[in-house]
Batch of 2 targets.
Target 1
Amino acid sequence: MNNREWVLAALQHGQPDRVPYHIRFTQAAQAKMATFYGDPGFLPRLGNCLTILDVESPQSWREVAPDIWEDPYGVRWDRRVDKGIGVVCNQMVTPQTLAEYRFPDPDDPLRYGGYSEVLKDKGDRFVVAYLKFSLYERAWTLVGMENLLTAMVTDEIFVHKLLDRILAYNLRIIENACSYDIDAMMFGDDWGMQTGLQVGPRLWREFIKPRIEAMYGLAKAKGKFVFIHSCGKVDELFPELIECGLDCFNPFQPEVMDVIVVKKQHGGRLSFYGGISTQRTLPYGTVQDVRNEVRRLLDIVGCDGGYIASPAHAIPADAKPENVAAMIEVLQEQ
């Protein structure tokens, strides 16, 4: 079997002859590992099973002031403290300006300009197109998180109109991305905190569920698998996400859910991608702790398919390089 076949077997709940895996790094962690290995070009030798394509052009962001970056939606991100993502520092949309707001062009060929070349040379990788900040996150970045949460209670009509516009925009992106020979659409939308849902299940069902059902349904109609990246403790939603057509959940954080119990409960209908602790084990554990955790996940969560092994998030800067190396060795030595 090759990388794509391992992933397909896992998603179809068969037992691949090895558990597929994928490892991502923050910039700081990647630099530390390059120093640890003495090899700045170590990434292609990891053996990752996925190729992840963005649906935004890398040229779509611009620095408008020192460490202030503007995204293609006009949202400005202050990166003076958080160099990776930043903090939203403006408001693009209000109830009064929603009708006037214009989204970037979903048909802009620059969005998908590199797809053909990557897909021509994809080898045996499983290819995922990734729509980040796909609904709830897109909404709060445009109007402000506090404003959005308040409006969900005080101005539901505005929230529905905003989310409907985001949905229409997203559906066009999905149409375009799925016209290429990709295997899956992945949607990024963080709904959780360490302790549970940010908006609670009632508001999630009112505002989020019908629209993700439409997005997932379009991707499935195009013959693609559906992935979601949603940080935090959101496992109470798994039965409904399965109903909506979800195939694979990420990041599967062991700090907020018992990954072995969750796999037993939902593993026949849902696959999981992540599970290796980036909050505890990689930064604070020993090399043996890492080896034990990764082997346990491969043996138990990887049994009967339904698992893509991975750190629960892009590896953070505080992860110990020797721990990251131990994780990579166990994954590669299957």
Target 2
Amino acid sequence: MASQKMKKEAAMTDFTTTEDFPRSEIEFDARFSNPDACYQYLLQLKWPDGFVCIKCGYKRYWLSSRNLYICTRCEHQHALTAGTIMDSSKSPITYWFKTMWWFTTRKSGINATNLKRLLGFGSYGTAWTWLQKLRHCTIRHDREKLSGRVEVDEFFIGGQRGLGAEGKTIVSIAVER
């Protein structure tokens, strides 16, 4: 069980950058506005040379109504979202793609309140959890410590205006020059 968790966490931190990235939100919407387009994109990422069963190596499959790729030889089921932050999510895959687009392209970022409003979530908690999953993916666990000339700054966010630091959260940032 522990090794499966480690594999899942490793898969969530493996990054692939491609040149096939939309250059604008209009281009993104045209490309990923329906679930089939999102699944096709994931299919190409997972199996660039076509489907291969991870259990028996067979190349033929049938696609279930739940978007599971099922090997025609051993009947092993493969989910395109398995091992990703979208694993076991009941939300539409288009919502995940849109959230990832906003998370990676908005200069000022996106917060849970905005995400809740933009996607029409009934719960702030869902939006917050999604963003936490995305933030977790951006951490490089094998990163080196900062060295040489390092600049540090801090600021407070939240709370009420004019009450000093009460109810506010301190944020510290450091950058290596």
